[in-house]
Specification:
Shape: globular
Strand content: 15-25%
Strand order of the largest sheet: 2-1-3-5-4
Number of domains: 1
Number of helices: 6
Oligomer: single chain
Largest sheet: 5 strands, parallel
Distance between the termini: 31 Å
CATH class: Alpha Beta
Radius of gyration: 14 Å
Amino acid sequence: MLFRKIAIGGDHAGYEYKEKLRKALEEKGHEVKDFGPYSADSVDYPDFAHPLSKAVAEGEYDAGVLICGSGNGVAITANKHQDIRAALCWNEELAALARQHNNANVLCLPSRFVAYELAEKMTNTFMDTEFEGGRHGRRVGKISC
């Protein structure tokens, strides 16, 4: 298992997927911390994306999953944190490439644009794919400001 400790969160649009993904990850043996929200009531995604990203950046969790309607809001928010490489993905190939080439540590999912089954497949792919390093490592090393 590449990532053992996973942080998960999002907003009201991602709540249903978050709940299902949390359970699916736990069933696969991951330790999962739910950063919220804890209901489908309307919330502001930065209130959940910032604490999750901080925890991943500080090494409390190996990786994170953020889910909102488009995936864009959580991705933009997460990428404000130094040492976070959040990738918005909408198919399995992008989830694999985000890990292989970008060493992404937060997967961002657009719940309004992908079926739950695909979201779970992308999450599993992301969690099971290793960073290739090499020339990609050199490039990733140039990302931070």
